[in-house]
C-alpha cells in the first residue's frame, strides 16, 4: 500500500510541478465571447492531448470540456483553466506565465463556465488520507469533521467570485458545472485497496461540494449544471472505455481522480445543452 500511495501522491501532484512557464496570457480589453475559468477538472486530460501552446504549468488539454463546448457552439474561446487553481488564482497570477483568470473577462463576454473549489477544500489531502488509512480500518470509520468544514468554508470566496465575474462581464451568462461521480458504494481493484465504505465516503464529500457551489450559483444568478445524474455508472471503477475519471491505475491520463477524454466529452455535452436551453446564445 505504501508504494501505491506514493504513486498516487506523485500523480495527483504532477500538475503542481514547476514546469517551464509559457508567456503570460494577457488581459483582454473587451473579453472573448466564451471564457472558461477553473482548475484541472476543467483543464486537463492529463498526459492525453496536452496543449503545448498553453502555459505548460496548467497541463491544459486540447480536448478539455471548454474546447469541446466552444467547438460545438461555434464560440471564440479564451480558456484560462489551470491545474491546481484555487479561487484566489482567479484574481492573481497563479505562477509565472499564468495570469489572473478573471483578466479574460470583459463587456463582450457572453458565456462563462466555472469549475473551481476542490483545491480550496483540500480534497486531495483528505482523499490521500483515506487511501493511507485503508490498512487501519479506513477513513469513513473515523470521519474527520474538519473535511466538512473545509468544504463548507469555500462558500464566501466562491460567492464573491461569482459576483465579481458578473461585474466584469455584465452581459454574460454564468454556468457552474459540478463534480461528477467518482466512486459508488463499492471499490474495485483499480483503486488498489480503497475500502468500499471509504469509496462511498469520498463520493459523499464531492456531493457536499456540489451542494455548496449549487447553492451559491442559485444565489448569484448563475446556472448550476448537475453532472452527478448523468454519471452514476461512469466513475473510476467503470469499464475503462466509458469511465469519466481515471482510478489509481491511471492508464489513460496518468492522473488519478482526473477526467478522461470520455469524462470531458460527457461534461461538455451537459454544458452545451445547458447553454443552448438557456437562450444565452440568442440574446
Automatic annotation (TrEMBL):
Task: Please name the SUPFAM superfamilies in this protein's record.
Answer: SGNH hydrolase (SSF52266)
Q: Kindly indicate whether the keyword Metal-binding belongs to this entry.
A: no
- For whether the record's keyword set contains Ribonucleoprotein, the answer is no
Residue stretches making up the SGNH hydrolase-type esterase domain: 36-265
- List the keywords (alphabetical): Hydrolase, Signal
Highest taxon of the lineage = Bacteria
Query: Pfam families under this entry?
Result: Lipase_GDSL_2 (PF13472)
- Provide the leader sequence positions: 1-24
One GO molecular function term of this record is: hydrolase activity
Q: What is this protein called?
A: Hydrolase
Amino acid at each position: 500500500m505504501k508504494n501505491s500511495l506514493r504513486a498516487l501522491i506523485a500523480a495527483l501532484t504532477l500538475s503542481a510541478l514547476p514546469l517551464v512557464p509559457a508567456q503570460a496570457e494577457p488581459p483582454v480589453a473587451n473579453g472573448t465571447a466564451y471564457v472558461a475559468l477553473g482548475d484541472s477538472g476543467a483543464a486537463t486530460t492529463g498526459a492525453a492531448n496536452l496543449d503545448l501552446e498553453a502555459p505548460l504549468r496548467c497541463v491544459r488539454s486540447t480536448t478539455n470540456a471548454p474546447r469541446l463546448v466552444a467547438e460545438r457552439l461555434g464560440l471564440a474561446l479564451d480558456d484560462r483553466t489551470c491545474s491546481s487553481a484555487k479561487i484566489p488564482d482567479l484574481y492573481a497570477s497563479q505562477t509565472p506565465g499564468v495570469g489572473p483568470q478573471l483578466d479574460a473577462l470583459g463587456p463582450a463576454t457572453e458565456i462563462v463556465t466555472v469549475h473551481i473549489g476542490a483545491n480550496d477544500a483540500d480534497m486531495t489531502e483528505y482523499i490521500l488520507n483515506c487511501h493511507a488509512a485503508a490498512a487501519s480500518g479506513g477513513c469513513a470509520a473515523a470521519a474527520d469533521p474538519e473535511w466538512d468544514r473545509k468544504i463548507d468554508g469555500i462558500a464566501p470566496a466562491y460567492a464573491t467570485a461569482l459576483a465579481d465575474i458578473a461585474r466584469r462581464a455584465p452581459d454574460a451568462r454564468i454556468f457552474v458545472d459540478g463534480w461528477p461521480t467518482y466512486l459508488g458504494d463499492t471499490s474495485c481493484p483499480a483503486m488498489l485497496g480503497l475500502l468500499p465504505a471509504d469509496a462511498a465516503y469520498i463520493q459523499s464529500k464531492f456531493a457536499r461540494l456540489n451542494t455548496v457551489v449549487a447553492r451559491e450559483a442559485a444565489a448569484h444568478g448563475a446556472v448550476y449544471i448537475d453532472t452527478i445524474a448523468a454519471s452514476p455508472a461512469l466513475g473510476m471503477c467503470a469499464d475503462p472505455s466509458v469511465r469519466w475519471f481515471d482510478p489509481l491505475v491511471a492508464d489513460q491520463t496518468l492522473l488519478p481522480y482526473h477526467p478522461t477524454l470520455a469524462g470531458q466529452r460527457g461534461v461538455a455535452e451537459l454544458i452545451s445543452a445547458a447553454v443552448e436551453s438557456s437562450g444565452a446564445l440568442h440574446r
